[in-house]
Amino acid sequence: MAETAIEKVDPETEFLASKRQTGNEWETFKENVRPLKRGRNVNLLNHALKSYTDNNLKNSLYEHRRKLIEAIDEYKGEDPLLPWLQCIKWVQEAFPPCGDGSGLVVIYEKCVQAFWDSDRYKDDLRYLKVWLEYADNCLDAEVIYAFLEANGIGKTHSDFYISYGLHLESKNKIKTANRILELGISRNAQPVEKLKAAYRKFVARSMARSKATDDSMEKPPAPVRSFGTVLAKGQNRTHLAPFKSDPSDSNNSRSGAAPLSVYKDSVGCDDSIPHQTDISNSWHTLGPRAERNKENNAIPGKWKSYKIPQRPGTRTGIATASACIPVFVDEECQESQNVKEKSKKSSRLLQLRWENEKDLKRETEQIRKNPLRKFPQSSLPR
User: Fold this and answer.
1) Fewer CB within 10 Å of terminal CB in the chain, N or C?
2) Chain centroid, CA 330 distance in Å
3) How far apart are CA 166 and CA 178, in angstroms?
4) Is Nucleus a UniProt keyword of this protein (predicted)?
5) Cβ 87 vs Cβ 68: under 8 Å
6) Rounded distance, CA 181 to CA 163, Å?
7) Burial group, residue 162, by CB count within 10 angstroms (0-12, 13-18, 19+)
8) Do 286 and 292 contact (CB within 8 A), yes or no?
9) Is residue 181 pLDDT above 70, yes or no?
10) Is 96 within 8 Å of 49 (Cβ atoms)?
11) What percent of the chain has pLDDT over 90?
12) Do residues 110 and 350 touch, judged by C-beta distance below 8 A?
């Protein structure tokens, strides 16, 4: 009776062969995940990161993003900001790097542009947070904070003054940051206790910074040492100033040491022989001024005396317009163009060409450089 031999497989090989999921697949791409203040859903994160290797999943994400944009246009409810917030939150989860290809910055711009002049949302904390996230994604966030201050957006919330103050502090504008935080406290921005706590931390950091500056200024100068000084045990060379090289100072001479020999060329360097200039190639005379400036006295000629030869023959009449030539259009290109037109119509607010990722990245780069480019000039801070 033949016995079947059963090969034993180690647990690691068995797990890899089963292709089971542990929920820690995001560890492979954790360097590409942008952290969020509210945290991330691990299941959604693992699902989104699979798009790096699965083109079908990537296309499904783009399709779902397009549907969310269409939902913004078709929304008829009482809170027009709600579909924008849902779209922003989903894009942050579905595109963990939140890079230029995600379209997040473009959505930020269109969202803040849609409600900036609405009195209903000027004191809405949700709308203010969209502005603050938009500022974090732009190169010059101070322009956005100045715009919010000039238009009275978010002035009743402490988050505006805290974010504005931290940004100014990062740019070493301490006095302006202090003024902004005090302004928020004077306006009783809510929650005021959170703002006061942030202000106390700011004052502590400012005092520590000024104390460190004073200590560096009051540091005694390093002692001066002469050449050949023997350092004491435990003394650091970096704390000593460079030695003086004044030959007249007798303290700088090395005691008990032989003088340094200086090399001296013996050919053509005798001090007893005066220096003579080689005049074999020198000019004996420079000549008169007219001779020296002869290159600068060009005699002008008459250009009108020269004529361009013409070809013999008669001119032809004016060319008549020819019949229109039909342009060949490929069916696949026509179908792609129809899809783009449909996407533009369904997304008149965003006006994004999601099919072309290069255009989206170019648009995002322009927004980062000039975040208020599409706002009227009357609303911009002066």
Assistant:
1) N
2) 41
3) 10
4) yes
5) yes
6) 10
7) buried
8) yes
9) yes
10) yes
11) 36
12) yes
